[in-house]
Amino acid sequence: MSDSRIEGYARGLFEIARAEGTIDEVEDELFRFARSYESSDDLRNALTDEQIPASRRQAIVEDLLGGKVTPTTTQLISMVVGSGRARDLPAIVDKLVARASSVKNLEVAEVRSAIPLTPDQETRLAAALANATGKEVNLKVVVDPSVLGGLVATVGDTVIDGTVRTRIEQLKSRL
Amino acid sequence: MMLLAILGADDATQTPSKYWPEGYEMLFGIPASLIVFFLLWKFAGPTIKKGMASRTAKIQGELDAGEADRAAAAAEAAQIRQAKGDIAAERARLLADADTQAAALLEDGRARLTSEISELESRAEADLVAAESRSGDELRAEIARLSAAAVDHVVTGSLDAATQQQLIEDFIAGVGVGAGVTR
Predict the structure, then answer these.
(1) ipTM score assigned to the predicted complex
(2) Which pLDDT tens digit goes with each residue over A72-126?
(3) Which residues in chain A touch residue B171, judged by CB atoms under 8 angstroms apart?
(4) A-interface mutation test, from B145, B154, B170, B171, most A Cβ less than 10 A away
């Protein structure tokens, strides 16, 4: 899909969430779903399979998210999947998150961790990242077991990598 | 009649000399012999002379032919002797050529053998160095692979919950002072 169309979808979803007054929750839930979508081949295949009727794919989304996220999030994802744009969902969500952060003068900080962070750790990490980059950040934590341990944070073009995976790769490279 | 009387007067079986015939025999015999000799000389002489001359010529011809054969044989002998001399010279030349060629071949063979030995030694040394290098590289690669596997095993095995929390805390603390930032 073209960037303008992705941008259009992102803007549309953002406006709906903002009109519903749940932009913060919806943005966070969409972000988490997009990361799950990226990491799960089964989910990706199910939601992009043209052989499966759109209504069935939407039902999969509703079954998967029903009761776990806000109704707005479920409906927005269902709408994207129903319109046959599931393949572009991560890009749409990333644009939406960036837009939401921009409105609040925040920079998106994507953090990948092998285990979930506690609220306290997220608060302190956001403060630390703001201190390191000089920008207020909208922290998005992705649980990614492939990092093995530690964290990697991406804020705009800045990458702060403290993962065990990277250290092991460096050590292997030296070996 | 008188002749008969003479003939009849003596005994027919008796002669006066043991060596000479009777007189009448000599009387008739000598002229008869002379006549015979004359006739022989007159009629047979030329034929005999001619035959003798022919024989002489024939013998001379044979002598000449023999002399010619001898000369031819001598010439042939000389030719053979010359040819024999030429053969000896040719043999000597061929032997000399063969010696020269053998010496050249030997020298060439020695040079080629020396070159091949040198080349083989160089190649063997290069192969040895390459094998050493290859073995070293393979050994280093294997050590690196095993070390990486060991690192993976040790690190992932030691990543318990406390270590994970410690890593997160270290990261937050490190980011707070600007450590590990890449752009």
Answers:
(1) 0.78
(2) 999 999 999 998 888 999 999 999 999 998 888 888 899 999 999 999 999 999 9
(3) 125, 150-151, 160, 162
(4) B171
For testing the chain B interface, which of A115, A139, A141, A170 should be mutated: the one with the most B CBs within 10 Å?
A115
**Three-state helix/strand/coil letters over chain B:** CHHHHHHHHCCCCCCCCCCCCCHHHHHHHHHHHHHHHHHHHHHHHHHHHHHHHHHHHHHHHHHHHHHHHHHHHHHHHHHHHHHHHHHHHHHHHHHHHHHHHHHHHHHHHHHHHHHHHHHHHHHHHHHHHHHHHHHHHHHHHHHHHHHHHHHHHHHHHHCCHHHHHHHHHHHHHHHHCCCCEEC
Question: Each residue of B9-61: pLDDT tens digit?
Answer: 555 555 667 787 788 888 888 899 999 999 888 888 888 889 999 999 999 99
Write out chain A residues lying below 8 Å of B178, CB-based.
Answer: 131-132
